[in-house]
Write a structure and sequence with these properties.
Elements (H helix, E strand, L loop, with lengths): L2 E4 H8 L4 H13 L3 E2 L4 E5 L4 E10 L4 E10 L10 E9 L5 E6 L3 H18 L7 E4 L3 H10 L7 E5 L3 H10 L6 E4 L11 E4 L16 E4 L12 H6 L2 E4 L9 H8 L8 E3 H5 L13 E4 L4 H18 L3 E2 L1
Parallel strand pairs: 1-7, 8-9, 8-11, 9-10, 11-12, 12-15, 13-14, 13-15
Antiparallel strand pairs: 1-16, 2-4, 3-4, 4-5, 5-6, 6-7
């Protein structure tokens, strides 16, 4: 039997998952070579602007393989719709049987990305963070801050968005937290931030400079046409880390910096390698570190499995 779960019950199960730990295991599995992850499939749309990503794979020795379809259509909020959508399909590695359809509407992708950002901050943010800079005001900008709450004691947040209305909406959605959130007119105002997270689908660099000792987690650029960081930032960084070196050859901030000739790929480590102690992370409080996350299938495998096992243990499903 194939079990079909919808977003509300998926969200309820997700609340009982240690997602940051799951992402740590996912990155270790990827960088250790235990995962089989084919190249990302994608569809890009110009009018209206949008994209669809297909990520899939399996980890040797685990019970499931996963196929994920996730979309982002950026005019949707003006229509009263979420910009994110999608689903995950979970199959048995032993028989190929479709075990579950997770109709998450993009929820799982949003949360696994935010949890990965929190993990990056845990490993790379400096010991002292006086202010957090958030670039963007969408769902990912919101979730990144929520997942950062247990990672850092800092509660001062500066946010840069496309409009005052977008910033006001962001502040309203996070009113249930104890973060003090102020809008800024430019990313140049992030100079006092030791931790910066960038979350937009920008096609042109928005962040051009940071202070010594800053950590940047970049999650918005996941295609060849997106770029949030000036390539010179990666050139000057002491530590440059990605989730997947293979994917960074064709997408993300590192791709842009390498293509421009400002960064040598030999300087780039995978976060799984740093977690495993195979490559160095931040060595000094004055280091500039950048983690470029384009999203790997092992994250989708990990979150789909964790949620499915919670669902099957806790509640009945609808059957097809």
């Amino acid at each position: 039997m194939t079990e079909v779960y919808r977003s509300a019950e998926i969200a309820a199960a997700l609340a009982n998952v240690d997602l940051t730990a799951a992402m740590e295991a996912a990155f270790l599995a990827y960088s250790s070579g235990r995962a089989v992850v084919p190249p990302v499939g994608e569809l890009l749309f110009a009018e209206p602007p949008g994209e669809v990503h297909i990520k899939y794979g399996y980890v040797r020795g685990e019970p499931y393989y996963v196929i994920k379809v996730a979309s982002g259509f950026y005019n949707n909020p003006a229509l009263g719709l979420s910009s994110s959508n999608g689903l995950m399909l979970l199959f048995s590695q032993e028989t190929g049987e479709l075990k579950a359809v997770l109709l998450d509407e993009g929820l799982l992708t949003d949360h696994r990305t935010a949890a990965a950002g929190a993990l990056a901050a845990r490993y790379f943010a400096p010991p002292r963070v006086d202010a957090i800079g958030i670039l963007g005001t969408g769902i990912q900008a919101e979730l990144q801050l929520r997942y950062l709450a247990p990672v850092t004691a800092c509660r001062r947040v500066l946010v840069y968005g496309r409009s005052e209305a977008a910033i006001a909406s962001y502040q309203h959605r996070l009113a249930d937290t104890n973060f003090s959130i102020s809008g800024v007119p430019s990313t140049e105002d992030f100079g006092d931030c030791q931790l910066i997270v960038t979350t937009t689908p920008s096609a042109a660099p928005l962040l051009h400079s940071v202070s010594r000792g800053t950590h940047v987690t970049a999650v918005g650029s996941d295609t060849a046409g997106k770029q949030e960081l000036d390539a010179r930032l990666l050139a000057m960084a002491d530590v440059v880390v990605v989730d997947s070196r293979a994917q960074s050859a064709s997408r993300g901030e590192v791709f842009q910096a390498v293509r421009s000739g400002k960064l040598d790929m030999e300087r780039v480590s995978e976060i799984g390698q740093v977690i495993a102690g195979e490559r160095r992370g931040r060595q000094d409080a004055a280091d500039i570190s950048i983690v470029d996350l384009t999203g790997v299938a092992t994250q989708d495998i990990a979150i789909a499995r964790a949620v499915y096992e919670r669902l099957t243990a806790a509640q009945p499903s609808s059957l097809t």
